[in-house]
Design a protein that fits this description.
Length: 139
C-alpha cells in the first residue's frame, strides 16, 4: 500500500485531532499547573497527544493542501502545530511545560471549535475539503 492509498478523508484527520485535543484536556482536568509540572506521567500523556495533533496537521497539509490554503485562521496555525510536534518529538529534553500548559488550556479549545464547525456528522457524505470560511474567534 503506497502513501496515496493510505490517505485519509479530511473528516478522519479531524477526528484524530479532536480526540487528541480532548484527551489533553481530560488529562489536565481537575489539576492545577503545579500538579501538572510535578507529574511526569501527565506531562508525557499530554505531549504524546500534542505530537498526534501536529502529525495530523502535517498529514492535512500534505494531503489536503487546498483545505489548508482556504482555511488560514489564527486559531489553527498549521505551521505552528507542525513545528510544536517537531519540537516535542525531537527536543523533548528541552520542553517548556509552561508553554504546553498554555497550549492545552488556551489554544486547543479554539482548535476544537474550528474542527467542530467543519466536521461532518458521523453518517454524512465524504468530505471533499470544501468548507465555509473560518470563524473569527474574536482575534
Amino acid at each position: 500500500m503506497n502513501a496515496k492509498q493510505r490517505q485519509l478523508r479530511l473528516h478522519d484527520y479531524f477526528e484524530h485531532m479532536l480526540e487528541a485535543s480532548r484527551l489533553c484536556a481530560a488529562y489536565l482536568a481537575g489539576i492545577n499547573k503545579a500538579e501538572f509540572f510535578a507529574s511526569r506521567m501527565i506531562q508525557q500523556a499530554v505531549l504524546m497527544n500534542i505530537v498526534i495533533i501536529g502529525e495530523t496537521a502535517t498529514q492535512i497539509r500534505d494531503e489536503h493542501p487546498d483545505f489548508v490554503k482556504a482555511n488560514v485562521n489564527p486559531a489553527v496555525p498549521w505551521h505552528k502545530m507542525i513545528g510544536m510536534r517537531n519540537r516535542m518529538a525531537h527536543g523533548y529534553f528541552d520542553t517548556d511545560f509552561e508553554f504546553v500548559w498554555d497550549t492545552v488550556k488556551t489554544h486547543l479549545p479554539l482548535l476544537e471549535h474550528f474542527i467542530a464547525t467543519r466536521i461532518e456528522p458521523q453518517n454524512g457524505p465524504e468530505s471533499d475539503g470544501a468548507t465555509p470560511s473560518s470563524p473569527d474567534f474574536g482575534m
